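[job 4471] stage=fold_predict status=RUNNING
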Amino acid sequence: MLSSLLNLLANDTATSLSFSLLLQVSLLTGLVVLLALSPALKRRAALRYALLLSTLLALLPMAALSVFTHLNEQALLVLRVSEAFERQPDPIAQEHPAADPAAMVVAQQTDWPAFASDSGAAKAARTAQVSVAQVLWLTWLSGTVLASLRLLGSVLKLRRLVAESRPVPADFRQKILPLLHRQQPGGPRIRLSTAVYGPVLIGFRRQFLLLPQNCVNVLNDEEWRSVLTHELAHYQRGDTWQNLLQKSIVAVYWFHPLVHLMDRMLDRAREEICDNHVLASHSPCTYGEALLRLSLSQSSSSARPQVHPYLPESLALGILDNEWKLEHRIRELLNTKREKSMNLNRSVHNVILALVASTAVSLTLFQVMAAENTARQDNLTDTRREQLETTQQQLQDQERSLDQRAVELDRQQQAREERLAQLQERLAEREQRIQEQAQLDNGELEESLRQMGQELSMVYAEVRAELEQQDFSSEINGAMEEIRQKLQMLETEQFTDEPYVDITRQALESALQSLETINVVELRERILRSMEIHPLTPDAPELDSEFEIEAPAPVPAPADPA
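[job 4471] inference complete, writing structure tokens
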């Protein structure tokens, strides 16, 4: 229900209607206020009261008639303001053409995620545009409810005042009741209260006249008679009901300052009329002195009253008014040019009603609407409606396709996640197998290296043992001795081939020299160092590259005998 109300208040019709009502009420109340402030009506309280009350009562039917004529477009004079109500181009639609219904099909064929985001942006922009009208209408409604609640609180407060009041004393009753029944038989009931500033008339079905408790012995009989005449004038005129209707209308138009001004002018005009009732039978001096004594008694009282009859939410009708200064009021009472009329002639009253009604009807026929070319606008509206319906159908189809696409994407994503889980599981198994195989290979490699080291150690031990057992020096000495013997044999024996003998001699001498240069101990140490190994490391043993055996010197070629 609240969303429907917000949508109703957000359209252009509601905005133009509110502007029309504000303009009509301002024109009518402004015209009547100017007339009421004119010198011709300044001293004629009855005529001013009738004009103001008729205008205030005409505001409610005027608003209803204005709503009817505005919605049905039956106004005789229509002021169309294009600058105020013509819809401005949507900046979101300009930046995002996909938000326009004419471009929605293209957006669907190109990039559906971009279209979805543009639609959301356009929707947010439209919401921001209509929020101002919604806030204004809801503010008026909230103010009306609060003002009505204040009015209801005033009614309950007056009822509590009556319940807390007490009867008047016997001596005062004997003095007041004859005066009261002499002027108004069966009038309001009189009670005393400590919560009022002055004599006030309250109540609707049963009315009570509340008197301040501290002013019982302040006035004499003549002054009390003038005061009671004023309050009984309110009772005879039915001002309590008129005041209730007046405050109710003000609660509806709480936002308009001219309505509040008319409300205060009505209150003063009502008091002036009741003062005229007093002046018709009492002296202005007596009545003025009574008002002065009542005001002084309240000013000197130590007890502070709780309710003043002229507070904005109050429905009490009192004789004292703080907004109307007492010296100005007494000066008006003593003015000899004051018109003391209490009631208007029926014909004059009817004329005022006719003038106010005709003015209100004339203003309701003057409407402010959004500027538009009727025929072309109707066609554009129909076209726009068709486009919106088509767009709505396209959006529904697109939403279904998006849902299907989302379901498919979810299914694909789920399949990818399952495949990824399987691959991760297989990878973990393969990694575990690789680690196990690597551990096995490392163990085998270490074992083979250990065995190779052991074998090499055995070979090293065998070679060392053989080297230690063998005596290279004796073998070398034997070879040298054998070479010497062959050299002696070559010298003692006669050979026919002399060149061959020389070559052989040189070779033997060279071999003998080489054997003489060999150091047997150093040769054995070099061989052992070359055979050193580390059996627990994977490095292969390397032979000593410094171990060299000197080759025999080359034998020179024999000279040619020729």
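[job 4471] summary: DSSP finds 19 helices and seven strands in the chain.
[job 4471] exit 0
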